[in-house]
Structure formats: structure tokens, C-alpha cells
Amino acid sequence: MEITALLVDDEPPARDELRYLLDAYPEIKIIDEAFSGQEAIEKVDEKKPDVVFLDIKLWDMDGFEVARNILQKEKSPLIIFATAYDEFAVKAFEVNAVDYILKPFSASRIEKTVNRLIEIFRNRKEKDEILKVAEYLRSLEKPCCKKLSFWKNNRIHLIYPEEICYCEAEEKGSKVKTIYGEFYSAYTLTELEEKINSPNFFRAHKSYLVNLEKVKEIIPWFGGTYLLSIQGYEKDEVPVSRRQAKELKRIFDI
């Protein structure tokens, strides 16, 4: 991990001291220095550092004014105030500074600051990776459409699952009976069941898939099984297998 830094202070000895302490950390790369607020703003635009170590009392501008200007940018760096004045700590965090270190700098205090920066950028990198993976997965997804396509008279018809009354397995594909009439699907009944993926559809029999919302009557049959009368297809009686009869009774509380 490499975190690029800009040092801003109008006193060269203070910049030298901070540079010396930060040089002990290979994760921190100091890419430039600035001795004034205006120069700091220009170098942020030019160098685009990850973090700015910023003094509050500069000869040309107030450090808070510099920070507010920098933080308005689209991809703004983090701000760490490095100053001799402890009375501005609360104000510093009001402008979203991530840390506030006092002069004279100590090695132990700089260590805490660097560790905080490493943690921030590690978390940011992990989030960026997650977002990249999520974006890639979204790019693989097909546009979402609830309608299913079926054939009739050499035309493809688009039907919502809730418009299906029931489906019947054929030797090749499936017969799909809807509120608009009968259609053909090249999918097997199992494939159709997976595509519809709705709790309202009941596999009454290995050869039949029924929309429970379209069941008009349940007719007791021999051996503890049933026949289903389907709305719009009352003459078609859909059988319920012995294995599925128990589930049907549970669904309709029979």
C-alpha cells in the first residue's frame, strides 16, 4: 500500500521534522511540499495526494480556509492538521479532518496517525474491490423481465407468469394454457417451474404444473387423490398424484 502525502507549512524546519518522522514508514510517500495556502491548493490539483498534512497558521491564508477549498474538490484528499495550536481541535474535526497533531511532533504520535491512515485506506481499498466485483457481476446480468416467451402460429408471445393457468408436459417441451389460450414452450416442465420460480405454482403431478390462483374446484378422486378444475379450462381436469395430494391438502387446509 502506498499513501501519497503533501506537507503544507510556511516554516521549513517544521516541514523537515514532519518529513523525517514520516520517512520511517514505507507506506507513506511524500510527493511534494507547499509553504502557503494558495500553493497547497494548486499542488492538490496538480499532484492529487491522498492526504494533506496542513498547518493552521499560514502566512497567506487560514488553514481552515485551505481545507474547505480542498474538500470541495470531486476527489478530495484527507486532511490532517499539524499545528502548534491546540485550541482549534474541535473546529478541525468540524471540517472533517481525520486527525489533529500538535507541534513539536513526537514519533509515537506520528505512529498513531500513520496507523489510522493505513486503516482508512485499507478499508477504502476493500470497499472499492467489493464495488468493482459487484459492478462486474451486474454487467453479466441480463435485463430483468418477468414475461416468458411462448410460441403460437409461428409467433412468439410474451406472457406474465400470473397469466398462466397450467402447464402440461409433452414429449418435447410443454403445453402452456393461459388466459389468452394455448401456447407451446420448448422448455420441459421442470425448466418452466424454475423460470417461473413462484410459490403460487404447484407441481400437481410429474406432468402438470398448476397456478394455484387459477384452481376453481378440487374434486376428490380414488385412492386419496384429487382432480383440479382450472378456471377457463373447466373441461380439463388436472390430476394430483398421490405423492402431492398431502401437500395440496396442506396448502388449502383440507
Automatic annotation (TrEMBL):
Give the HTH LytTR-type domain ranges.
148-254
Q: Which residues form a coiled coil?
A: none
- Response regulatory domain boundaries: 4-118
What this protein is reported to do is described as: May play the central regulatory role in sporulation. It may be an element of the effector pathway responsible for the activation of sporulation genes in response to nutritional stress. Spo0A may act in concert with spo0H (a sigma factor) to control the expression of some genes that are critical to the sporulation process.
Q: Which GO terms describe its molecular function?
A: DNA binding; phosphorelay response regulator activity
Q: Which InterPro entries match?
A: CheY-like_superfamily, LytR-like, LytTR_DNA-bd_dom, Sig_transdc_resp-reg_receiver
Name of protein:
Stage 0 sporulation protein A homolog
For this protein, the record's Gene3D superfamilies field holds: 2.20.25.10, 2.40.50.40, 3.40.50.2300
Q: Could you list this entry's UniProt keywords, alphabetically sorted.
A: Phosphoprotein
Keyword field contains Phosphoprotein: yes
Q: What organism, scientifically named, is this protein from?
A: Thermovenabulum gondwanense
Question: Where 4-aspartylphosphate occurs along the chain?
Answer: 55
Name the CDD domains on file. REC_LytTR_AlgR-like
